[in-house]
Amino acid sequence: MKTFPDPAGLPLPGPGDSLVVLARVADLAAWPGLGFALPEAEEARIARLLKAEDRIVRRAAWQLARLLLGAALDCAPAAVRVTRANNGRPRLEEAGDVPRDLDFNLAHCSGAVAVGLARGGCIGVDVEDPRPLDVWTDIARDMFDPTDHASWRAMPKETRAAAALAVWCGKEAVLKATGEGLAGDPRTVKLGPSGSPSAIQRGERRLLLAAGPVLAPTGFACAVESDRPPAVVVLAPGGWRTADP
To answer: Between the CA atoms of 98, 108, 57 and 214, what dihedral angle is there, to the nearest 10 degrees?
Structure first.
C-alpha cells in the first residue's frame, strides 16, 4: 500500500509567502492515505451534486485542502475548522491559535484539483479543462471587454483557444482571490487577450498572477496578494515535485 507523501516536506508558506499544490484526480485516488472522511457539512454539500464524477472531484479537492491546512496548522485534517464568508467563499474559522493571516482557496475541473495557501494576503486559484474554439467564441464577449475581444479575434485562429483558456483561468483566479467570485464581472479584470500582465491592481489589492502549463492541457492560474510568486508543487505518482508556473 502506498503511503501518502508527507506534507511536512512541502514549502509551507511563511509570512508573505504562498504555496499552490496541483494534482490529477487519478493520482490522488492512488494514495489511500487521502481517504479520510470529511466533516458532515462538507459531505452533505458534496452529496447534493447530481453527477458521481463531480462528487469524486469535489471530495478530492477538499481532502487535499484539508491535508495541506492540517499541515500548516499542525493538526489533523478533520480538525481544521472551515466556515464561509457572506459571499460563500470558504475560509478558516477564527478560533484558538489559527493564524489570522492564513488564507486558502481551492479549484477543480473534471480531472484536476488545485489548492492554494497564502500568509499575509488573499489567494485565488483556478484550474479549467481545455475547450474547443467554438465554445470560447460563444462566451468570449462575456469574458473580454470590447477592445480585448477585438484583439483576441485578430489573433491567429490556431492560438485563440489556448489564449482564451489562459485568460479565463487568470480572471477566475483574480475574482476568487478578491472574494467577488461568480458575482464579479470578468470583463473588468484587465489581463489582455493572451492572459498578461503578471501583476494586476484590483481595488486596493495588488495581485501577482502566476499561470502556466503545469498540468497541460489543463489550464491553471493563481492570483496572490504578495510581492513574491507562489511555490508551485505537483503531486505526481512518485510524490511531490516542484513545478514552474
So the answer is: -100
Round to whole Å and give the CA distance between 207 and 192: 15
What is the C-alpha separation between 131 and 150, in angstroms, rounded? 20
**Pick from 115, 113, 119: nearest CA to 56:** 113
DSSP label at residue 79: G
* E strand or H helix at 18: strand 18-24
pLDDT (0 to 100) of residue 163:
94
* 0.90 exceeded by pTM: yes
Query: How crowded is residue 105: how many other Cβ atoms within 10 Å of its Cβ?
Result: 26
Q: What is the DSSP string of 114-160?
A: EEEEEESS-EEEEEE----HHHHHHHHHHHS-HHHHHHHHTS-HHHH
CA distance 137 to 124: 25
pLDDT, tens only, 160-208: 999 999 999 999 999 999 999 888 999 999 887 877 778 899 988 999 9
List own/partner pairs for 129-133 with CB under 8 A and 24 or more apart: 129/218, 129/219, 130/161, 130/162, 130/165, 130/217, 130/218, 130/219, 131/161, 131/164, 131/165, 132/161, 133/157, 133/160, 133/161, 133/164
pLDDT score, position 87: 84
- Residue 51 CB neighbours (<10 A): 8
Contact call for residues 24 and 110 (beta carbons, < 8 A): no
Residue 242 three-state SS: strand
Residue 3: pLDDT band (50, 70, 90) is low
The helix or strand, by DSSP H or E, that contains position 84, with its residue range, turns out to be strand 82-84
Grid coordinates in use for 123?
489567494
Task: Let me know: does 68 contact 21? Beta carbons within 8 Å.
Answer: yes
